[in-house]
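Prompt: I keep going back and forth on a fold encoding question. Comparing notes only helps if you start from a blank page. Show me how you would write down a chain together with its backbone fold. Please set it down just below, with no commentary around it:
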Amino acid sequence: MENIALIESFSEFKDDKLIDRVTLMAILEDVFRSALKKKYGEDDNFDIIVNPDKGDLEIWRNRVVVADGEVEDPNQEISLTEARKIEPDFEVGEDVSEEVKLVDLGRRAILALRQNLISKIHEHDNTNIFKHFKELEGEIYTAEVHHIRHRAIILLDDEGNEIVLPKDRQIPSDFFRKGDNVKGIIESVELKGNKPTIILSRTAPVFLEKLFEQEIPEVFDGLITIQNVVRVPGEKAKVAVDTYDDRIDPVGACVGMKGSRIHSIVRELGNENIDVINFTNNDQLYITRALSPAKITSIKLDEENKTAEVMLKPEEVSKAIGRGGHNIRLAGQLTGYEIDVFREGVEEDVELKEFSDEIESWVIKEFSRVGLDTAKSVLEQELEDLIRLTDLEEETIREVVKVLREEFEE
């Protein structure tokens, strides 16, 4: 294979991959030097001249002329007789530059050289892709469903880049078909080997935050700031908003007339119920707002231990807890307080932890998770509601109710 034909075949990569001339020349020289080092043991005495635009390449080996019979390193030295075959007037001690033809490297070396070039260009592409998407971490991105697997959906963007949407980063109600456009947040970008792995997420709180920026002009412009976002993806979310402009109602601006502004966000998130609340540095007021729609009678705060005892009327308890305990759990995450719910006017109640001899600690913990910390708070709930609120089996709940009722019957 002639030098020019080989370089023409290499130049295809420049057009296909949109690699600039300087980068391609650097890659070519690196690849050829690797081939020279493999054949001759070293490459520091070779000059490589690459011109992809013209489609030519020259390799020159530089050696020193030594007397016949004194050649110790054939790569660095050439005998006087051999040197004079190149030019008859060479003398001992002079430098000789001799062109090396690619065919001299051998057919196998040329094939390996081309494969190495392909590998280097892919490595270059992957590095650029990694850098590009690394800068997009935390930003919204849209790509098309290419392949659906059991544990992940493989997406392709307009440039053909592969993006992974794992099962645990999908909203439970998500259902996509091949060809569908999927919107999410670039959660992470990692190099595994030389290949970048790009992870998309639809469950990250920052996805909801970025949707607010995208759909609500005041948030995009910075007139309204998002202080915190907590989510149970596809079920419920709470977003705390604030503004430095007293003329703006941040909650009203985010929700819009009859929910018009937030409707597209809710739809994108599989009808996720989004509570937008006014942020405040007043912890008591913040917790009150976070537990909405429940109406709180009083709150007792322990700011040092970050706990809050909330008193409510019995009919408000289920509102504070919410379906599946989502409301009280998200209110705690939003405010940073561990919230305990107590019923107003209920006397002679007993905390569940007092029954640790008869009820296993993990069962007590599960009731506490949904705001049921006392015996009467459990007994006031219907069996069906307890099954729905907790992750406990019906038989386990019946046993707990039996133990608690016996306490009050004595």
Notes: The mean pLDDT is 84. The first helix runs from residue 3 to 17. The first strand starts at residue 46 and ends at 51. DSSP finds 15 helices and 15 strands in the chain.
